[in-house]
Amino acid sequence: LFLSTDEGIYKITKSGDISSFVKGKYYDMSFDSQGDLFALKPENTMTNIDKINSSGIAAPYMSVDYYASDLFFNKKNSDLYLSDFSHGSLKKIDVLGNVSQFASGYGIVGAFTIDPYGNYYLASYSSIGSISSKGKYSWLVSNLDSPPSNLICDSKGNVYTGKSNNTISKITPTGAVVSFKLDGSIGSLRCMTIDKDENIYVVMSNQNSNFESLSTIFKITY
């Protein structure tokens, strides 16, 4: 697992050993098909994208003049997708670094993901929609009780979202929703990811009496 914090990105092995991977204030990240990690790094009104190799060496990849809320690689063709929160659109960056607008007109865009079958999913306000290969948006599920903060997919095409009320919802390709709520006494849901064996990892964060942030990682077998 790789976990981003205000101090840098940490690497966590299967046995739970933690080591510093790279320094810097990163907040969202995605691996490409070559094993390089691309991570978002905010700077005033801009967002920097760093490329980090397997040795933890970071190099500037690209800067954009807006707040980017999420990025995700399509590992089948190496296209990188970037959520433009400031302008309600989704950008596509090809392997040569060319930027094009993939989809737009959402008001607010958040988390983005791609399932194993090449379907695109985007969170907007309290809804999640699917996007066709030509950028056409259609609702998958709407009027969720809390804005979706994360999107992940399993091998069967089910979409999972984490919400600010500590609820994780599983959404089937037909739009059926099954939800369960985590214990709020251990903090607030910050982010989540899924491994190749369909285990879901959730980061819950809280503050102690000295206002120090404390994070706990949970492994969920759904």
Structure, described:
- The model has no long low-confidence stretch (mean pLDDT 87).
- It is globular, with a radius of gyration of 17 Å.
- β12 and β13 (120-124) form a beta hairpin.
- A four-stranded antiparallel beta sheet has the order 4-5-6-7, with no helix packed on it.
- The chain has 222 residues and is an all-beta fold.
- The two termini are 18 Å apart.
- The protein has no helices and 22 strands.
- Helix content is 0%, strand content 57%.
What keyword list fits this structure?
222 residues, mainly beta, four-stranded antiparallel sheet, 22 strands, 0% helix
* Class by alpha and beta content: mainly beta
Estimate the global geometry from the Cα principal axes: globular
- Order of neighbouring strands in the sheet with most strands: 4-5-6-7
Q: What's the alpha carbon Rg, rounded to whole Å?
A: 17 Å
Q: Ends: how far apart?
A: 18 Å
In N-to-C order, the SSE pattern is EEEEEEEEEEEEEEEEEEEEEE
DSSP E strands, number: 22
Unreliable parts: none
Mean pLDDT: 87
Helix content: under 10%
